[in-house]
Amino acid sequence: MIRPIMKDEVFLAQKSVPATKADLPVVEDLIDTLRANLDGCVGMAANMIGVKKRIIVFAIGEMIVPMINPIIVKKEKSYVTEESCLSLTGVRQTTRYETIVVEYLDKDFKKQKGTFTGFVAQIIQHEIDHCNGIII
């Protein structure tokens, strides 16, 4: 189900809690909502649709990748960039890392660990910031 985008910064600044298997419908709603907004968005976190759970999704081309309870366990080579967000107005400056290692659960709740670089790493960092209540 496509859900409305949360724009309340007080809500967005709250930390999300770990997701459970009961939250799988939220994963599907996030995927649907991202797919509906791909013209102006490459990633989303659950709090962007009003759910304070540690779930993110991001697009790599046509493929949408979900991550449940993602945690960055390693980051290398910081840089400063500017980002926008579907939940916020304008462009804001932030620090990101060129390479990150993320531990997360997939949609089957199997543990995964992946190394991500470049723009994909930037998207993941932005969405994990959402989970942590960090507003760029």
From TrEMBL:
The entry's keywords: Hydrolase
Entry's family note: Belongs to the polypeptide deformylase family.
Record GO terms (molecular function): peptide deformylase activity
One matching Pfam family: Pep_deformylase
Name under which the protein is recorded: Peptide deformylase
Annotated signal sequence range: none
Gene3D superfamilies: Peptide deformylase
InterPro entries in the cross-refs: Peptide_deformylase, Peptide_deformylase_sf
Stored NCBIfam families: PRK09218.1
SUPFAM superfamilies: Peptide deformylase (SSF56420)
UniProt keyword Transmembrane, yes or no: no
EC number per UniProt: 3.5.1.88
